[in-house]
Amino acid sequence: MVNPTSSRESVQVIDPEALVLASMAFQSSERRISEILDWWAAVGTPLLSVQRMKALASRMDGNHLLSEFAKLASRFGYRSWVKYADSQIQSPTGFQELDLSLKGCSTLLLRLRAAFGVGAKADIIALLIGMSGREVTVSAISTHLGYTQKAIRDALKDMTMAGLIRESSSRPATYSANRKPWLELLQPGDEGHRHHPKWAMWSELFRFLYSAQRICLAAKKGKLNDHLAASQARELVVEHQIAFEYHDIFVPDGREYPGLEYERAFRKVVENLENWVKSGD
């Protein structure tokens, strides 16, 4: 999960909460995911944000996924997660001591949390560095990270005062960061100078896949008729249009696929997303 070996110039930043929730959602499809989740719960939990995990789980109607991970984390002695588990926790379990390697560009967000604490400020810096100088609004930052706009504004105010990020004079205000000095600070003597961390909207993309899976399963079990399934699929694609556009993932024009024909367009969207993930762009 945190040992990138890519030779590409751009490396996507790991989103730990989104990755954990997606792993919880899809672990039945791959047995090894459960083993990785056990390892992550034991070693990586201190670098996870409970509040952000709650927000992302709520967005994807996946509070049960949060609860399942909370049980794992609690078993390894992380008591702050106990109240989010929906069933009795077993006694804390020991785990082989392992180092959490945070080398490489993809661990940018985790490295910032390790250095400055788990919270909105570290995440905002990671996001702005990964956006290559692109200016973003409070609303956009909230969409990317899952924190409330108030929490984002409060964090931005402090970081702007400290001179860590730039605020535009336009309205609404936009924010950006000069990533060169940040990368020089975070990658001393590291071959990471050859790479650039690139922010990815993993939370939105995983949410789309999770919702798509639920629609397909409901249709397969007869809980949704074909027309309702096609309608929900269409709405789901529209809802995630921002994420698809951000990553240049092609989405067929829904107007060319009326009614039940939209199933073909929906399959194409999922296929294009799958190809994007494989390409690492």
Account of the protein in words:
- It is a single chain.
- With 281 residues, this protein is mainly alpha-helical.
- It folds into 3 domains: 10-84; 105-198, Winged helix-like DNA-binding domain superfamily/Winged helix DNA-binding domain (Arc Repressor Mutant, subunit A), CATH 1.10.10; 202-279.
- Helices cover 54% and strands 5% of the residues.
- The chain has helices spanning 16-26, 31-43, 50-59, 63-75, 108-116, 120-130, 138-145, 149-161, 179-186, 202-220, 226-239, 241-246, 262-279; strands at 10-12, 136-137, 166-167, 174-176, 196-198.
- The strands form 2 sheets. It has a 3-stranded antiparallel beta sheet with strand order 2-4-3. The protein has a two-stranded parallel ribbon with strand order 1-5.
- A hairpin with a 6-residue loop joins strand 3 and strand 4 (174-176).
- Helix 1 (16-26) packs across helix 4.
- The protein is globular and about 55 Å long.
Largest sheet: 3 strands, antiparallel
What count of domains describes the coordinates? 3
The amount of helix comes to 40-55%
Strand content: under 5%
The number of strands is: 5
Mean pLDDT rating: 87
CATH homologous superfamily classification of the largest domain: Winged helix-like DNA-binding domain superfamily/Winged helix DNA-binding domain
Strand arrangement, major sheet: 2-4-3
Overall morphology: globular
Uncertain spans, ≥5 residues at pLDDT below 50? 1-8
What is the third-level CATH name, the topology of the largest domain? Arc Repressor Mutant, subunit A
Rg (CA only): 20 Å
Structural class computed from helices and strand pairing: mainly alpha
Could you name the CATH class of the largest domain? Mainly Alpha
- Count of DSSP H/I helices: 13
SSE order: EHHHHHHEHHEEHEHHHH
Q: Terminal Cα separation, in Å?
A: 18 Å
CATH architecture of the largest domain: Orthogonal Bundle
